[in-house]
User: Fold this.
Amino acid sequence: MSTAPLAAERRPAQAALLLLAMTSLFWGLNWPVMKLALTGIPVLPFRAICLLVAGPTMLTIARLRGDSLRLSRGEALRLTLAAFFNVTLWHLSTAYGVSKMPAGRASIIAYTMPAWASLFGALFLGEKLTWSRVAALVLGMGGVAALLLPELHAIRAAPLGAASMILAALSWAAGTVVTKRYHWTGSVAALTGWQICLGGAPIVAAALIIGPFPGLARADAETLAALGYVIFCGMVIGQWGWFAVLARLPVARASIGTLAIPIIGVLSSTLLLGERLGPPELVALALVVAALSLALRPGAPARS
Assistant:
């Protein structure tokens, strides 16, 4: 049998690799830039503004591509549940977590999500929990421990930052399981735009009920530039790039490519924010990367 088709499968399109690199760069830089934006804009107004702009923008892009924006009643209910985990909990938890702890550490904790998703998939989707996935979960939690143990005294005094990032990872994993559980008829771009709008609605409503966006009028140019980056580079262009990658690469291979994101987050936080990069951070990075590699590697054995 000819090996040419197999060889072709192993050579992803150069354009897809470039898009994956672009997406990883934008999302990795998004962590320290978000930290900069949150120094001048409170958490709730910050997330409300991001979602209020990004959701309609995504739907507009989907419409311009010719995608249908219609949702059946049943699909809308399922999408609302997915949006609660993927958008509402994720965006509130990450923004609050980054405001309370170094952005590089926050990104490491957030990207333990695939280990949690492996566990949730076994519990709620009946997927086999292989030994490699168990090892990934252990390694991922070891990375979190290496990151947090050196500063237990600070965590005991103000534990909400780390707890918020763990909640963010759990909510992203839960949203992934909900998304995988159901069949969707719309395009990825349209469904994601609807998720941003549905999941962002309670955040926007809460921000409006609480009152005018405090501090936004007094935000300096650096804060406003950071806000613009998060909206258009981190959310709009980053999501568009991710959709394009998924259209060209298998999901597992594309997901493995996102391992660069927490690494870029830690390194860029060191450069932009002056956050320290010591042995605990390096150990945590190594353990989390190893965990994600095991959890997402293609062709893993199916022994339970």
Residues 15-296 form one domain.
